[in-house]
């Protein structure tokens, strides 16, 4: 049975309030989506992973990185966050 992390409602609210400094993304879930739209995002996140020397399935990124990802996707940060929440990619905020 596959185990998947669950979203943290309080952390999601922190993102909405603007008090979160980092977001946790489920990279395994993002890879499962197989949409061409997510390929540039996966490449960007892969770059972050290489820089950190890790290969985790849960990756925490800064808000600045989230802004860059939104630019790559041609969306606002809020739109990207809503989409990631709906798809189960956005898991937590720190």
Molecular structure report:
The mean pLDDT is 80. Helix content is 54%, strand content 15%. It has a three-stranded antiparallel sheet. It has a single domain (9-93), classed as Arc Repressor Mutant, subunit A. It has five helices and three strands; from the N terminus they run αβααβααβ. The chain has 94 residues and is of the alpha+beta class.
Q: What key attributes describe this structure?
A:
Arc Repressor Mutant, subunit A, 94 residues, alpha+beta, 5 helices, 3-stranded antiparallel beta sheet
Quick summary:
The chain has 94 residues and is an alpha+beta fold. It has helices spanning 9-17, 27-32, 39-52, 63-73, 77-87, and strands spanning 22-26, 58-62, 90-93.
Topology:
Elements: H1 9-17, E1 22-26, H2 27-32, H3 39-52, E2 58-62, H4 63-73, H5 77-87, E3 90-93
Antiparallel strand pairs: 1-2, 1-3
Strand content: 5-15%
Over the alpha carbons, how many angstroms does the gyration radius reach? 12 Å
Low-confidence stretches: none
- Percentage of residues assigned to helices: 40-55%
Structural class: alpha+beta
CATH fold-level assignment = Arc Repressor Mutant, subunit A
């Amino acid at each position: 049975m596959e185990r998947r992390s669950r979203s943290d409602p309080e952390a999601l609210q922190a993102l909405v309030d603007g008090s979160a400094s980092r977001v946790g993304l489920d990279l395994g879930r993002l890879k499962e989506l197989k949409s061409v739209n997510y390929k540039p995002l996966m490449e960007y996140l892969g770059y972050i992973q290489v820089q950190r020397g890790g290969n985790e399935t849960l990756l925490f990124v800064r808000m600045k990185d989230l802004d860059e990802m939104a630019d790559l996707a041609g969306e606002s940060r809020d739109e990207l966050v809503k989409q990631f929440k709906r798809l189960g990619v956005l898991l937590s905020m720190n």
